[in-house]
């Protein structure tokens, strides 16, 4: 059964000027329900993550200052959001959602979080709309409590997964792969286990060929027991922060390739949504919806 993490707090109400990144979450659920891709039975509401799992990934000092709204002005500015208790609570729910999805993926083959993909959060800081790293936290949970030994992170957001790379820089059991815009944010990249920087404006054929070449090498090298897939849709041509040139269909075929290799290799996959900032909201919803449609079509 397809299990999808979703909570009303995902669409946390922010002050004017900060709402756009959040509005897609409720709309995405409404679209998937309306078209019949999912029913309410597919949805589950995660609880806030326990502090001990946060501290498996994030520094105690950072978490103390974040949770008590004590970050300095410069730190808050890097987040991109006004820092509030509600926002921290939202992050805790999202992170538990990805942990739950990882466990459901092990049972059903695939599971998706409507939010998440907060790959710019480091052990000791947040930035770029990311306060806590849900993939980092869920991967550590699976290592520490489910006793997995080989995890692969496939990050296809247009922005490098710099926080995830930093978190696992000394962890051989987690292999981080990031394929992103070479000249896009963050300007100072971290070192993933494998980074592929893409030129501005790259279109479907070239992008999909690079990914098609990379995926079999990743699975052969890592032999993962679980894949975390960051499926940001800010790679599409209309994204105001993306600068790449993928069509909606190209983005869909990207997802199909990732799912295909997971299925061929019998590896469960946990999906986090990541970024999407197109000027046309319909493009964001359609691109994200395709990820869910494919997961349902290919795995069930």
TrEMBL record:
InterPro entries: HDAC_classIV (IPR044150), HDACs (IPR000286), His_deacetylse_dom (IPR023801), His_deacetylse_dom_sf (IPR037138), Ureohydrolase_dom_sf (IPR023696)
MF-aspect GO terms: histone deacetylase activity; hydrolase activity
Domain Histone deacetylase: 18-288
UniProt keyword annotation of DNA-binding present: no
Annotated family: Belongs to the histone deacetylase family.
Highest taxon, organism lineage: Bacteria
Example of a GO biological process term: epigenetic regulation of gene expression
Annotated source species: Sediminitomix flava
Protein name: Acetoin utilization deacetylase AcuC-like enzyme
Keywords: Hydrolase
Listed CDD domains: HDAC_classIV
